[in-house]
């Protein structure tokens, strides 16, 4: 008896077998997946897949964050707040093209501004960019973010204002916001999850020089490296990488044999021992240091020839050793111990501005 031949059209192929109805995934599973997405951009992409995924996911974190003005509050017993805008650094990576590093802000109303990535305190002067960037059509990496006050909200009488603000989004709970102030004695304002009352610490026993968020927990550090970890436990928080501390020793106005007098020591925080350990090399990493947000990226992601260097942005060095660096931006090569203007290092300089030619080709005119 001959075996009846199957109709090729009815025979399942590798392609048809691989096809699945992703919208039919259990809602409980979709909700759990959304809880594991710590980067806001990833959550937005996840929710935009279909209506089922969107309805089963966590909501987008509320961007409406406010920060109290401590001195005004103490004078008239009323709490006055500044509205905060989120400032983020993104790396846009097209296939076989030079990547582009951008800086944007998003205010509580959802309005987005494109800022010059090398300048600080310019939220009221966005760059003119006659195109619309669709992040859903591009490969984008979020490198870091912080929160700032728009310059329109800073009045001449505001002789103290937040020097640096960080926020921890706690999934479905309220955010924790913390910051330092520019003044002779720096104070810290802290609002924990679920609390409606701000805790303003005006008499700090240590001179804070930086604050940051690492694995969902705020860290504060003073001038000699002493570190305070705010006791906030966040569950289901995924984060790769390490917490780094950079000590910079500079000697301005002197010149020894034409060499820049600058020394940089890098330390890595040992979470088990709760102490800082020397880090001899950054390896493939490039570290970006600014007055506000600092972050790192791999040389391979940046498409540059080497890592193990530090790039100063946000007017970090307006002048160094008598040299007028463009915008105060420079590159320190840890291998050579040499400081150079960013404009002398095209590999790194071309990451910023102006954008590469492919930007105009793949973007939609406004």
Give a verbal description of the structure.
The chain is of the alpha+beta class. The protein has a domain at 23-60. Helices cover 13% and strands 31% of the residues. It has helices at residues 14-18, 27-35, 40-47, 51-56, 70-76, 299-302, 346-349, 357-362, and strands spanning 66-68, 81-83, 85-92, 100-106, 112-115, 131-132, 140-148, 162-168, 176-181, 188-191, 199-201, 208-214, 217-222, 227-229, 244-250, 262-270, 275-278, 285-289, 295-298, 309-312, 330-333, 338-341, 364-365. The strands form seven sheets. The protein has a five-stranded mixed beta sheet with strand order 19-18-20-21-22. A four-stranded antiparallel beta sheet has the order 5-4-3-7, with no helix packed on it. The longest helix has 9 residues, at 27-35. The chain is globular and about 60 Å long.
Task: List the topology elements.
Blueprint: H1 14-18, H2 27-35, H3 40-47, H4 51-56, E1 66-68, H5 70-76, E2 81-83, E3 85-92, E4 100-106, E5 112-115, E6 131-132, E7 140-148, E8 162-168, E9 176-181, E10 188-191, E11 199-201, E12 208-214, E13 217-222, E14 227-229, E15 244-250, E16 262-270, E17 275-278, E18 285-289, E19 295-298, H6 299-302, E20 309-312, E21 330-333, E22 338-341, H7 346-349, H8 357-362, E23 364-365
Parallel strand pairs: 18-20
Antiparallel strand pairs: 1-2, 3-4, 3-7, 4-5, 6-23, 8-9, 9-10, 10-11, 12-13, 13-14, 15-16, 16-17, 18-19, 20-21, 21-22
Biased composition (Polar residues): 8-20
Organism: Medicago truncatula
Domain F-box: 22-55
